[in-house]
Write a structure and sequence with these properties.
It is globular and about 60 Å long. The chain contains 14 helices and no strands. It starts with 5 loop residues before the first helix and ends with a helix. It is mostly helical.
Length: about 270
């Protein structure tokens, strides 16, 4: 399994992540003037040393360049000033997760939850637990359902579906993902995970139907096109697979797995 961007989608901090079963994605190369931008932010911080917004801008600038140690260092400095800020702990969790440090991400999220148990933090933690096959994800999902099924039910069922997909139990995954989609038919990650479960069961046509609905609802859903390509390959529909991978790259030019799959198919023409 490959690192997920689902975690970031649920995180309060707007740092974009990446896709769990979909393939590896990279951060875009920084613009030529990015270093100047970082220095400019530092200069502003000198003028306004108490501005958390400027510190967040600096963290994001470091993150965009892949300088996670520097970004985490800034977050730690701010946490030393305000260790009771769930928001700062969540920022730190996001940075750790994107830097492939799952355990520190979990520990930071747990600190955020201890301070202020926002449903969004619980969903993020449940998602991470699901991806490492930890049954604590199911406990978190049950708690979300108990506290507020109306608001958090779709996320709770998604967490369960994700967990069962990682545990290679596609039937249980599909049942929970259907429950998620019955509460929110626009839940893109649920379509993807349901398609993956069907793919696991070798029901490629059924998986395609799920993905076609997803990209109809959200036509820039790059991961949907990627999995469509994989299904078409299994059905020996090479041209359709090529088009699907091209569509994925149209919406995310840095989708490495889609690019590799496209190059492989085109090389055999």
């Amino acid at each position: 399994m490959i690192q997920s961007k689902i975690f970031y989608a649920f995180s309060i901090v707007v740092f974009l992540l990446v896709a769990c079963n979909s393939g590896n994605k990279t951060v875009n190369p920084p613009p030529a003037n990015e270093q100047n931008a970082i220095q400019s932010i530092k200069n502003e911080i000198i003028q306004h040393p108490d501005s958390l917004m400027l510190k967040e801008n600096l963290i994001e600038a470091y993150r965009n360049q892949g300088y996670y140690d520097s970004a985490i260092s800034i977050a730690n400095q701010e946490i030393k000033k305000d260790s009771g800020s769930a928001y700062l702990w969540n920022i730190k969790a996001s940075l750790y997760f994107e830097n492939n440090d799952t355990m520190n991400a979990i520990n930071s999220l747990k600190r955020a939850i201890d301070i202020y148990p926002l449903p969004e933090y619980l969903v993020a933690l449940g998602t991470v637990y699901a991806e490492i096959k930890d049954p604590k994800s199911l406990l978190i999902a049950d708690e979300l359902l108990r506290v507020n099924k109306t608001k958090s039910g779709k996320d709770a069922y998604f967490i369960k579906g994700l967990y069962y997909n990682y545990m290679n139990e596609p039937k249980k995954a599909i049942a929970n993902l259907d429950s998620c989609l019955s509460l929110d038919f626009t839940y893109m990650y649920a379509y993807r995970e349901k398609a993956i479960a069907l793919y696991t069961e070798k029901k490629y046509e059924d998986a395609l139907n799920v993905l076609k609905r997803a990209v109809t609802i959200q036509n820039n859903f790059d991961e949907g096109y990627y999995w469509m390509g994989k299904c078409y390959e299994k059905l020996n529909k090479k041209d359709e697979a090529i088009q699907s991978y091209q569509n994925a790259l149209l919406y995310d030019k840095d989708f490495i797995e889609a690019r590799k799959a496209l190059a492989r198919l085109q090389s055999t023409r």
